[in-house]
Structure formats: structure tokens, C-alpha cells
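Quick one before lunch.
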Amino acid sequence: MLKKYNFIFILIFFFSNWIRADEINFFKKIRGCFCTGGLIVGKVDRSDKIVIDGKSIKISEDGFFVFGFDRNYQNSVNFNVNGQKYTRNIEKKKYKVERINNLPKRKVEPSKDDLDQIIKDQKKIKLAKKNSINRKIFSNKFRLPVEGRISGVYGSQRILNKIPKRPHYGLDIAAPKGKKIFAPNNGVVTMSAKNMFFTGNTVILDHGLGLISIFAHLEDIFVEVGEAVEVGKLIASVGMTGRATGPHLHWGMYLSNIPIDPMLVVEANLF
Ligand SMILES: [Zn+2]
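Model of the zinc ion complex:
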């Protein structure tokens, strides 16, 4: 009698481990942060069918997929991989409230003419974010584009001149005007614009697979649209153009319009 039960237990043990091995093997193919603001990169078979939280995931020709968790992502994420279902918890990062009170009134409460320009700027940025190259251009390691003090982090709730605004989607690095800014990873320049209302002189770099970097408040721009740049290439210099209280680089990252935390991407070892 006892022997029979033992046999069943052993069978269950092996069966459950066999299922778990599948799951472990799948998550070995993914790198990045399962956290709010996090980016994950997977290296899989082109023939795999992957659905994440109900969304069918596109696998690139070179066998990669990417997924991003925004600032307010739910507590867990559900994967369906070739019919197998897995769940992972999402670590909820804490975000602080940030008050900035010495901004020019016009930059916080834009006039009607300003709003026209803002809409124009947004259209331009949106266009540059679209049509990303469906191939992984970035390498496993992202670097900080400029040396300096971190003066603003991703996700903080911003209250500008006492008016609550959308969260800060980027990393601010304070550095002297004219300090060189280098490409944090390989990419193709998809936008280079002067005097945008909020972001001032602005560059957008396409890293492939829908992942882009935006560099704002620049002084000089040293790259042109269509140019392919390698990690470490000089792209611009620090300024305080647009809505800025001092010279700094605002580095934003987006995955198909989902704001990603650049610091988490720098800390990650991706594919
Ligand atoms: Zn910023």
C-alpha cells in the first residue's frame, strides 16, 4: 500500500518538474527587468508563438522579441508560449513626487500659439517613433550617454509651478553646457530637430525592434537623419534648450510608445 503511494508521489514529482523545466528553459531565453519601467528582450525560435497578456508578440527575422512594462503595469504578466501558460510577477518600483517651481510660466501653461507648436512637435516625434527597423540593432549593453549627476529619474510624479503634470518619462543627467553626449548603443538617427517647445534641440535614435532613445535640451547636434551610429559615437552636446531650468540631458526611451526606464536598461545585460 505504502509503496503504491510512493510511486504516485514520485510520478507527480517528476511530472511537475518536467513542466517546470519547460518554464525555466523559456525564461532563460529572456533578459531584462520584470518590473515597472522595465524592458525585456527574448531570443527564441522564429516559429514560436508567443502571446503576452493577450498581445500576440512579433518575433523578428533574427529571432528576437521585446516587451516593455510601463510605470503602472499590473502585478503580474501572463505568457502563452506555444500553448503553455506561465506567469511572472512584476516588481513595482516606487516613484517619488518631484516639485519644480522656477519654470517660466509659458513653459508650464502654454499659450494658444505655443499649443500649435506643441502639437506639431508631437506629430514629428510620433512619426520618428513609428516604422522602427524590425531587426535588433542594439547590443547587450547600454551605456549612459553623458557623465554627470543624475538630477531626475524615470516615473516621478511632476508638479511644475504647483500644477500636476504627467510623470517624468526619462533620465535627467546634469552636466555643463557643451559636454559631449555619446550614443548609448547602436542605432539609426530618425529625427533631428531644433527648438521644439518642450524638448528644445532634439535627436531620436532608433535601436531597432521598436526601441528608441530621445535626447532633449541639446546645445549642438552632430548627426543627421538617416545616419547609422555605433555605440559611443559623438551625437550631440548638453544644453538647456526647450523646457529646462539648467543644462542637462533628458534621455527618454520608448518601446512602441511605452515609456521605458533608461536606468533599468543600462543596468540590464540584454542580448
Ligand atoms: Zn527630463
